[in-house]
Structures are given as structure tokens and as C-alpha cells.
Structure to design on (123 residues):
């Protein structure tokens, strides 16, 4: 099971006067724990409850066993103590990872989008 936390920056509701939408889904721009900025769909069951600065959980599990494409859908909103602890722990891990990389003179790769399949599968 693979999940990643992020923090909501912007909510793009189809009913917003500033959004012209072809469907009823809501997208959320988030800052991921590793400093990437990504936009994902939020599950409709929780979309109306989302607020700016909420900590969220993105489901990165494969869509099926045959296709290793991650779902990349927001499935949870965390608030209060659990949100603060989750965000803090991941940010501390990133800081430690950067510190170790700096000591070893290694650049930390930036992955702007989740990889659907390994590059070697492209042929």
C-alpha cells in the first residue's frame, strides 16, 4: 500500500465562478511533502469538506494488478493533531534526506509527476 501526504494550496470546484468545467469532479492543487506541486482529483465523497491548508492523503496504489498506473486520488483529509504530526514527520524526513545528500554531494532528484510505468517499458 502506498500513500503520500500533501497540503492543499487551491481547490478547483466545478461550481466555482472562476472554473469552467467539462465534468463534476473537483481537483486540488497540493504541495506534496517532498516539495512537489501537483494537482489531483479529490474523491467526491470528501470534496465538499476540503479546505485550503488541509493535510490530505493521496492514494498511489496501482489501479489494477495488470497496470501499475497509480490511482493518484485524494482519499483522506487529515486535521488537528494527526495532520500536524503527519506533516511534521514527513518534512523532518525530507530535511534529513537533503542533509545526507548534501554531505555526500548527491543531488536529490525531483519527480514532477508520478511514473505510470517504468521507463524501460516504453520500448
Amino acid at each position: 500500500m502506498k500513500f503520500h501526504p500533501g497540503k492543499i494550496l487551491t481547490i478547483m470546484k466545478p461550481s466555482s465562478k472562476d472554473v469552467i468545467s467539462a465534468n463534476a469532479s473537483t481537483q486540488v492543487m497540493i504541495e506534496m511533502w517532498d516539495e512537489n506541486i501537483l494537482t489531483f482529483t479529490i474523491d467526491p465523497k470528501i470534496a465538499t469538506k476540503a479546505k485550503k491548508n488541509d493535510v490530505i492523503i493521496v492514494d498511489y496504489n496501482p489501479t489494477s494488478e495488470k497496470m501499475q498506473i497509480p490511482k493518484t486520488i485524494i482519499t483522506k483529509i487529515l486535521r488537528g493533531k494527526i495532520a500536524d504530526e503527519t506533516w511534521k514527520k514527513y518534512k523532518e524526513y525530507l530535511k534529513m534526506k537533503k542533509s545526507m545528500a548534501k554531505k555526500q554531494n548527491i543531488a536529490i532528484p525531483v519527480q514532477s509527476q508520478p511514473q505510470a510505468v517504468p521507463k524501460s517499458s516504453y520500448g
